[in-house]
Fold:
Amino acid sequence: METLAQYDKKAFIGLLKKRGIKDKAVLDAMSTVPREEFVGIDLQEFAYDDTPLPIGEGQTISQPYIVALMTEALQLTAGSRVLEVGTGSGYAAAILSRIAQEVYTIERHQPLVHQAASRLKDLHYDNVQVICGDGSLGWPEQAPFDAIIVAAGGPEAPRSLIEQLSIGGRLVIPTGPSVREQGLLRITRISKEQIEIEELARVRFVPLIGEEGWQNAEAEIKPRLRRAPVESPAAASELIEKAAIHIPSIDSVDLASLLDRIGDSQIVLLGEASHGTAEFYDMRARITKELIQKRGFNFVAVEADWPDAAQIDHFVRDTRVEPTEEATFSRFPTWMWANTQVLEFVKWLRHYNESFSSPDEAVGFYGLDLYSLYSSISSVINYLDDIDADAAAIARRRYGCLTPWQSDPATYGAMALGDTHKDCEPEVVAMLNALMQKRIDYAKQDGRRFLDAMSNARLVKNAEQYYRIMYQGSISSWNLRDTHMFETLESLMTFHGSKARAVVWEHNSHIGDASATDMGLRGEINVGFLCRQKYQEEVYSIGFGTHCGTVAAASDWGADMEVKTVRPSHQDSYERLCHDSGLNAFLLPLRYAKQDIVKALTPSRLERAIGVIYRPETELLSHYFKASLPGQFDEYIWFDETRAVDALGPEVAKGVPETFPFGL
Ligand code: SAM
Structure:
């Protein structure tokens, strides 16, 4: 009888053959080396799936098909001497060792070197030598090599590696200006001075970090901000003009090709370059409606607090139940969500949801942010009051730790730094754990209400930490906030099960991949970065931009909203390139763009971000940062001139029932 592993392996080799691997020596090696020995115990059941798997240090064991393809391309013989850059788990080195005479492999992460070396020794792959170092420089002491394989993607093929090839030797390496996708090249050294280059496939590898790879030492999260010579701006604007898809008007633009590019993505991230521009909201609403109607997207998650969005969720889904009269979006910055553009979308969603037989199946609306410490506490206690009075009493005691700072949570952070008061972390963590432990009991009674309580309890736990670390520097609090938003999104994906499809509305600075911006250089991560890490090709992020017009914003935190004039974009910015294209409004595909435009837009430039505060007088300092647009977004939407959102003021809301749930 066959064991499961043997059975899987047969299918595995069959698959490799089907995908075009022909070299018998490669197929034999792939069937002999036990891939399960090169991954953690918890991942062994996936060892013969044709997929990369995590191996620690943020790295992966490569997809078996790619290992086979690259090995075949090396054209090894029994006498070959091979260099591998990027040992990782040691799996590919083991494969190479079954075909070649000697294998030299270099890895930059010491823990992976240790692990791989001891695995290879235990499995008696004795013709492999492993060292720790920067493989982008090769291994000159052991050169020349008949073949060199690089298991990480660099901007271009390192000169040192080409020089360490023997004449006739082959270098197989993924390269390209983006770490999202590279061309897999085979470079053959024909003579001392001459090489021949072939592109074998489009692939996606972790970055090659080193002196002749991506420069930045922390490039696992920041490889894309490449300081390269700036292309001629006029040429870049012309390329934009050629590649742009015209938007005649938000209502009439045909989005069929956008939906094709989005494909089967599970998550679509829709950005905005300010929190107060009408066109950004209207266009996001238009795209979201299509995704809901035509692609079955089943929830919208926005950069708002959970309890506020929960009121909207109630309004759009539970139309047969009377809504509560609590005010929503009543804290600064009210206009960010309480505006006519959002109201129109929410009304549409309520109407659309009437077609579902049960509110549980209808399209949901959730908040991802974490500023509602105290209303979230009330929500957890109210929930427990209804279903478990004993647990509610405990919750009151635990959360009581935070109540002295109710009116100003930021003072809690200052207090917790001192010696006189203890912080409340153990209490809020205990509350979340208590809910988790009763997950099955509670969720049985009402899954959606349990999700609400859990999300609020998670928010309280993370907000407690957020206010505490706010005083320790902005990077850690930014990272905590975005990690919280990502965790909340993750829990919603889980809640919605295998059919989960999310549209996320957040500022560009949250949804554009931080690793392609100055933020990444400072060590900041964001929702866009975390989504790409987890969902890879299954997340599609769309940034937005504008040249000039008006915007709703305040001059200081907590100040009144004003309609401010947006200054024309800076001459060294992406916005100026778009403006100079001469087009009023367009979609600019980046993920599926031609190489010429990606190349022109990749060198970093200024990009503008207006939040709820806009200070035109210090615009360059306060609102511009550097980014590499094609690394940051999969697509960019442009409106040359834009206008401020129409905020729902109290006078509008009063006595106008259809503006519920924006009671101001
Ligand atoms: N061949 C590996 C296997 O099958 O397990 C997979 C390797 S993983 C896709 C790429 C590896 O390259 C990572 O472990 C990463 O740390 C390593 N790496 C990146 N830049 C490097 C450099 N300059 N020198 C050596 N290793 C590097």
Q: What stands out?
A: The longest helix spans residues 447-469. The chain has three domains: 4-203, 229-258+506-645, 370-496. The domain at 229-258+506-645 is CATH 3.40.1660.10 (EreA/ChaN-like  fold).
